[in-house]
Amino acid sequence: MNMSIAIPAMVNNTALPSLPNASTEKPPTESQDNWNETLKEFKVVAAMYDWSPEIQGIILSSLNFGSFLAPIPSVFLVELFGAKYLTGAGIFISSVLNLFIPLAADTGVTLLIVLRVIQGLVQVLALTCQYSIWARWAPPMERSQLTTIAQSGSVLGCFIIFLAGGHICQTIGWPYVFYIFGGTGCACSFLWILLIYDDPVNHPFISTSEKEYIIFSLAQEDSPPGWSLPIKDMLKSLPLWSILIFHFTDYWHFFLITMYTPIYINSVLQANIRDSGILSALPFASASIFIVLEGLLADFLLSRKILKLITIRKLFTTIGVLFPAALSVSLFWVRSSFSTTMVFLMLSSVIKSLIQSGAFVSFLDIAPRYSALLRGLTQIFSYMAGAISPTVAGFLIEQDSEFGWRNVFLLAAVVGISGLVFYLIFAQAEVQDWAKRRHSPTCEQI
What we know:
Elements: H1 2-10, H2 32-45, H3 53-61, H4 71-81, H5 83-99, H6 101-107, H7 109-137, H8 143-171, H9 175-195, H10 208-217, H11 231-235, H12 238-267, H13 273-303, H14 309-330, H15 338-352, H16 362-366, H17 371-399, H18 404-426
């Protein structure tokens, strides 16, 4: 997200062209004269680069160029070293690399892309490992709300970076976005090492009653698979493929929105850098709240037996795909209204968060004992989408200055709905035969 908010300030002309007559209702911000003065300030405070829309798309995508190679090795590293230290190391290394992005950008686009590829690899390490911790901490009846609370943290992080990042760019220069948040990430990595434990058994402060509750709640699932994997059965599992394909199609839209929202607001709505950051933060602020409420709703519907688990997963996923797709496609036709555009972006972000209690946690339903591995597989497909989506968006916008954004949103909607259809047909919520352990431990063993 650092690059997403900084890149409009890094280019001497945010080369993504605005649409003809794109904004008749101007944002209630500074005048165009003040905006021009702001651009002059950037030239004094920080370097600026002549990057085309296509180059910008490649830079935004570069974080994911090698990421799809890392999830599976990360799973085996977890088995060797544990999730706690690997996650902490991933956060720390990524944050340190963040500090060097301004220097890399000044050196050249190639070095910047290489650095971001490495940064993406270590971020995958952190994201993959944390799910193996949830497999040992989250009781089945509380899984949706616990994982969504954790996921709301990443959404809240996006909100903070967009909210503060635009102001930082406009006042002290875009390099400080990377310096400030890189330093914050380093501090958070040390907090992680101090506070996090791989499982409740090793936690020094948890009460005995809570420890026993978690252990016995997971008694039928919490069995580390070791190095033996039912690869053939997994390859033939349509429920697993429905989750993997859905991650690719949905993350196509996710990376597009998260990486291009500041650019869209800046270039199409003609807001300045500071205001585009604040406005880009609003959808994430609303989503960070609703994502927790939706997790609670999912577990409420399940615990009260109002809906079956598979019904909850499919219902939440359907709503979380169709409505944001329709709203995103509509952005092209409401671009003349600033307020309508912002309402659509916020509604899209809020409704899309339903997926966190839908398809995004389905791999915990079908194979909880392989949670780290399946999380790694879903990330492979997610990062493949992240490597393609922003690059394609940059290409479409550069090729057609009038209808480029429309084509970007239409393509994202088609891709997302196709993944939804496949998920609705083949998804299941029962533990698959290939994911069941053959020998259940006794209570004494537990």
